[in-house]
Amino acid sequence: MLKNLDPALNADVLHALRSMGHGDTLVLADTNFPSDSIARQTVLGKALRIDNVSAARAMQAILSVLPLDTPLQPSVGRMEIMGDPETIPEIQQEVQAQIDAAEGQSAPMYGIERFAFYEKAKQAYCVIATGETRFYGCFLLTKGVVPPKG
After folding, report:
1. How confident is the model at residue 74, as a pLDDT?
2. Which residues are known catalytic residues?
């Protein structure tokens, strides 16, 4: 156990988050997402896991260490519901609350059509699978920067 690190973050996830650079993306996926097959096509080449937690809880853990690219652009995409892209399901509302809390302000997610999401996911740095069982618990995060002190 380490001090000041969320216990949901395991060594593999921490290594991937630290290895990513500004503008790299990661996928946070629910249990129905084809994490293994998509992850084989990413930069990292293998799926990572934050098991037994919801997507919102995993997002909270990730955002405790990962800066988002929010000053320049919307930096978290959400998989849109097929045939109903404007509806924000409960799981996405919960994740939005975690994003806003981490950023200290409203940082709205943008929608990505389901099949476009799969294509963007293949170009990501990594895929992190969660224990989220609800549909549409899939998100694409863009890493920002940590500015120098002073």
Report:
1. 85
2. 22, 69, 118
